[in-house]
Design goal:
This protein is of the alpha/beta class. It folds into 2 domains: 184 residues, YjeF N-terminal domain (Rossmann fold), CATH 3.40.50; 262 residues, Ribokinase (UDP-N-acetylmuramoyl-L-alanine:D-glutamate ligase, 3-Layer(aba) Sandwich), CATH 3.40.1190.20. It contains 18 helices and 19 strands. α2 packs across α3, α9 runs parallel beside α10 and α11 packs parallel to α12.
Amino acid sequence: MERIVTGRQAKEQDRAAIASGISSLSLMRTAAEGIARAVKALRSGNETVTAISGTGNNGGDGVAAALLLYRDGIDARIVLCGNAEACTPDTAYYLNQAKAEGVPVCSEWMPVPHELLIDALFGIGLNRPIEGETALLIAKMNESGKPIVSADLPSGLHADSGEILGCAIRASATVTMQAKKAGMILGQGRALCGTVTLQPLYDDPDEPELFFEDESDIAALLPPRPFDSHKGRNGHALLCVGSATYPGAALLASRAALRGGTGLLTVCTPDPVRPFFAALPEAITVPTGTDDWNDQAAAAAKAAMTGKQAIGVGSGAGKGNLLPVIEAALSAKTKLVLDADALNQMAEERTLLRLLHENVILTPHVGEMARLLRVSSADVLHDPLGAVKTFPCTTLLKGATTLVHAKGRTAFLTFGNPGLSKGGSGDVLTGLITALLAQGLAPFDAARTGAYLLGVSADRALKLLGERALLASDVIDMVQY
């Protein structure tokens, strides 16, 4: 589990470290040491190193790095963008040290051949668009083709959302201090940061509010099944999914639920979909006696909810009326996954949002989240961390970086590839999460595990699932005479 912080959290942690007795000058030097190491690793020969620095503490990291490199015999210089009198005290200290030791300092960048740049213009405090001369300077740096090492995060990248504030550095490498910033992973961050290295500054024993998932975290949530395991001990899941228009969604969600390890799976789906389940004999289908989701189908779904450990609603349901099914599932307080058409219908019938509780998982993509919040997709992308904290349940916001939030904790998942950006991926996710809930995982754990399993390669996912992924039909396929 790797810690992630917002800009505000990073500042608070620095203040707490200084209050504990660590000097701010020492923190700046430690940050500079990380930058200097990254520069040495990136240099291919005798490149001049130019630290293009602002007057804030981020600029001070660049100034101090140039000083350390100069002391090591590397041709280093400093371009100070701004009035030296405006420098923070720590930046001024290292700037004066650099001048005293002969490091060249100038106010304008004049490129030279064979040069490597340190970007130390802006840090985590930037919250307005970059414009004017500074924007021209960033464009010139990007267009130069020279390697760029960014201090903490690329200048112009919002520390929390990953939005580009007018313009931003395209770094070859980024040395981030103490913990990765959320904006390095969200939005445009992953495209701008290049190779990221972490420079620790101090101990931080507190449990993180924001964190990266890794395989060891997920493996711990999927222990091997006991040898005397049987279907009755592995959960009974119910999926209310599919329509005549989208029978494939029902099959995908159902197959994923079975692969995810639920002991039993019941599927309530409109009657035109049921013949397709001849291809999935392990699933139990419930006849609704109707061609679409209406009151009669809802009654069948309600009856099927009895005795189930987890319910998934929405995948491929189309235009039929799911609201009675959603209301019944919410009222039952059973662990519940709401996806796709269930979310869209709740966005219109907002009284159901008041029934959300801690056993519920919402799995919207950005557009569905925007509809739930009645804002634009741009608004969600501007503050994804705020968006996932809106509801009193687990929320999984799907995207290139998926966020899973519940009870003050947010997991970041960056696994997967653009190949998942197609119809059916969300249905598979719903089936996986529903199966994990049925087996006893808490909603937050089921959501982040399901997202991880969807994102990693099939081989890795099957390895993690172990015996859970075996279907009865797999055994038939392996019988030999």
